[in-house]
Every structure is written in C-alpha cells, then in structure tokens.
Write a structure and sequence with these properties.
alpha/beta, Spore Coat Polysaccharide Biosynthesis Protein SpsA, Chain A, about 240 residues, 7-stranded mixed β-sheet
C-alpha cells in the first residue's frame, strides 16, 4: 500500500490523546504500513502538549507540532497537512469521537479517487448542532456547486499531492469547505463514505461558540469571492469515475 501520514488536531485533549494515538498505532502496525503520526497541539492550555511530547519520546514514528498560541481549527489542519510527508494523509480529531479502525477500508478507494470525505452515521451531537451543521453544509454546497453530505466530518483521507497544488487561507472552521472547494475546482476526484460517530467521553467541544460561527460565515463569503475571481482551473489528472 501507499505510505500514509495520520494526524490529529488537538486543543485541550489531555484526557483523550493517549488513547487516540495508541489506537492509531495499533491499526497502522496491523496494516504493515509505512506511516507517521503527527499530533498538532493547537496552543492547548492543559497538559496536551506535554503528553504529546511524552508519546513522541517513546515512539519515533510520532512527531508533534506545537502552536505557541491557539490558531484555530483551520490553523491546526494547515499545520498537519504541511507536516505530512507520506503519499496519503488522513486526519481525524484528537477527541476520540471516531474509530480509527474505520480508516483502513478507505484506503482501497484511493486507487480510484483523490479524496475520501466521510459523513457521520448517527451523529452524537445535540439537535441544534445537527440542524446548524445541515444548514451550513447545504449553504457551502450551494455556493461551490458540490454535493457533500457532511462538510465538516473530521474523518478524511487525501492524496498529499493535493496540498502542493492548492492554497489554504482559512484559520477557522471553514477549512474543510475551503479544501474541498479548491480541490474540486482543480479537478480532483472525491467519494464519500459513512463512518460511525461516538459520544465524547472527556473534554469539551469548542467549535460551536458564536465567535467561531461568525468567523466561519465571514470567511465563507470571502472564499466565495476569491474562488469566483480565480475561476475553474482543472488539473491534468485522470477523469473522475
């Protein structure tokens, strides 16, 4: 199989990160993959950074990227993609709400596609959060002419070369939408697959604050203007299946 970078954006996940990384190590070892694991500590105020360094100190296949201050979800993802060195790059959040065992079935799809963007089955969030997410996804898809079921699902697999050919500017919650919109404009092929979503067992969600939501909408319309001005630039790769 291709080599793979797996990374976890983390903000105040001291009670989750050990379990999450250990699970990933087990899955990747079983695959016999050429892999690396990257922990992106996005300026955590708890012991996340220290624990991440301890994990990396025990295993050379794990490395840590530290942000001195919190840069936001988009900043954390940008750092993860930039740090990735393998042919494929997969990320999921460090909160443990997804099962890394569901990543290996995505790998065979990469012989036909450039991106696997997943959607949450039985999403474990409040009704209000689900409604907000549905409306956000519909708006993003309308603006960028995409058909994505769950824009912000944090369980995605990419060919790393994509990030040599697109630029990322979002430092907030828009980052997933930006990457997909720019990749589609470049002609990269994507498919979708359902994955299970589990309740958070420790820590707190930070993505639903009014400031985060307002910032995402501001960035969304700025991105829409940018992409309209840039037009459609197709790459020279194979046609989508």
């Amino acid at each position: 199989m291709n080599s793979i970078s797996v990374f976890f954006p983390c903000y105040n996940e001291q009670d989750n990160i050990n379990r999450t990384v250990e699970g990933a190590l087990g899955v990747l070892e079983e695959l016999g993959a050429d892999f690396e694991i990257i922990i992106v500590d996005d300026g955590s105020s708890d012991a996340t950074g220290q624990i991440a360094d301890e994990i990396a100190g025990r295993d050379s296949r794990v490395k840590v990227v530290h942000h001195p201050t919190n840069l936001g979800y988009g900043g954390a993802l940008q750092s993860g993609f930039k740090a990735a060195t393998k042919q494929l790059v997969f990320y999921t959040d460090g909160d443990g709400q997804f099962d890394i065992d569901e990543m290996p079935p995505l790998l065979p799809l990469m012989s036909q596609y450039d991106i696997v963007t997943c959607y949450r089955l039985n999403r474990q969030d409040s009704l209000v959060r689900k409604i907000n997410a549905w409306c956000w996804t519909k708006l993003v898809c309308l603006l960028f002419s995409m058909k994505i079921r769950d824009i912000d699902c944090a369980f995605k697999l990419y060919k790393r070369e994509i990030f040599d050919n697109i630029k990322m500017s979002s430092s907030g919650a828009l980052i997933d939408a930006e990457i997909l919109a720019r990749a589609v404009r470049r002609g990269y092929c994507l498919t979708q697959k359902g994955v299970h979503h589990y309740p958070r067992v420790a820590g707190k969600q930070s993505g639903a604050s009014p400031w985060v939501v307002l910032r995402a909408f501001k960035e969304l319309f700025r991105l829409y203007g940018q992409i309209r001005r840039e037009g459609t630039t197709r790459n020279k790769g194979r046609a989508c299946a």
